[in-house]
Amino acid sequence: MAPSILFLGFLALMLLGAPLAVALGLAGTLSIMEANLGILSVPTNVYAGIAKYPLLAIPVFILAGLIFERAGVAKQLVTFASAIVGARNGGLAVVAVLVCMVMGGISGSGPADAAAVATVMIPSMAKAGYPRAFSASVIAAAAATAILIPPSVAFIIYSVMVPQASVPALFAAGLIPGILAGLSLLAPVVWLSRRHGFGLADTGPRPPFWRSLRQAVWGLLAPVIILGGLRTGAFTPTEAAAVAVFYGLLVGTVVYRTLTLRALFDVLADAAEMSAVVLLIIALSSVFAWAGSTMGAFDAVADAAVHATGNEVLILLLLNIALLGLGMLLDAVSIFLILLPLLTPIMAAFHWDPVWFGVMITMNLAIGQFTPPMAVNLMVTCRVAGIAMESTVGWVLWMVGAMLGALALVVVFPELALWVPRQLGYVG
């Protein structure tokens, strides 16, 4: 009876419109009471769920991403990328993709990346003849690489829930798939721009290369400092987040001088609010996860799935389809917290590498970030562009198809994810 309460109670609460954290925590609590597991296990697991050292990196990386966003780093990166690409048919769309990938290596958050780049790029692209719906689609899709290209908040949460995969290994594993996902977007972006004549009005002079490089180098150095420090062992992922914050403050207050005291207060307030929401969900999901694992509910579901068909390829295909569907409805953090207790037994049954498995799941969720109806990145870019999400469907499906191709390559060739961490000694 208790396992039924756990799953059916969660689904019922979600259908009633309860917040995700409430649905997870309440369903877990009710099942614990039904199974007589001890009500004191609820506060214990709420505390234990967030009393984990790696989770310290999440609020700090959120703060770092907001600091770089408000400091105007995106604007300087756009100028530098424009100096490289130049004024040509589809040039600004290519610039948008490249800038999103670099910003993803700073913020680790798709919506933050989308907001920073869309604010700078959409007005410029509109002047050059790009439809706002197309621009919003391109930026939303490219910003999804932020949860793949390290540092990634999603990878940190995955590492906490799947201890066999370390944060440095996941960061290294996400590098090639993240770049591959971003570059895959260039094909439809360039083809659509040339087919429809987008960007022909962009006849402005090319920015001076060396001057734009000098201005953008501060933003370009951020991922180098973060990843370089992790690789050399100078600091842990949590310490890397703190370094990113102080580096961002230096750039925003001393170099670009765009961060005022009022702006800093707003950044701290926004980061606190975003971090509180994420950590509250993590804390209450721990009750759900503990209840399910203690009662054996997750293992039972995994065994049923494995024995329903012993075909590993079919299970993998169905799993990817399910993740893509859920990614359209929920954010990546929520899906990790809901599904990983169910998926890890399946991963163990088929002896899948936990690092590759984490990258595969995250790529699915990255695609969901810009696939309607609940695409969080697309919501952000549509708000900046002042358009309805429905107007982007015809454009965004091209981006979805391109990134699905990148996902298929990573699924079929796991070495695309495992080669870098293997070379660095993070996986055997």
Automatic annotation (TrEMBL):
Domain TRAP C4-dicarboxylate transport system permease DctM subunit: 8-416
Entry similarity comment: Belongs to the TRAP transporter large permease family.
The name this protein goes by in its record: TRAP transporter large permease protein
Membrane disposition: Multi-pass membrane protein
Taxon lineage: Bacteria, Pseudomonadati, Pseudomonadota, Alphaproteobacteria, Rhodospirillales
Pfam families: DctM (PF06808)
Function: Part of the tripartite ATP-independent periplasmic (TRAP) transport system.
Alphabetized InterPro entries for the sequence: DctM, TRAP_DctM
Keywords, in A-Z order: Cell inner membrane, Cell membrane, Membrane, Transmembrane, Transmembrane helix, Transport
Lineage top rank: taxon: Bacteria
Assembly mode: The complex comprises the extracytoplasmic solute receptor protein and the two transmembrane proteins.
Organism (species): Azospirillum oleiclasticum
Main location: membrane
Membrane-spanning segments: 47-68, 80-106, 137-158, 170-192, 213-234, 240-259, 271-293, 313-343, 355-375, 395-420
Localisation: Cell inner membrane
PANTHER family: SIALIC ACID TRAP TRANSPORTER PERMEASE PROTEIN SIAT-RELATED
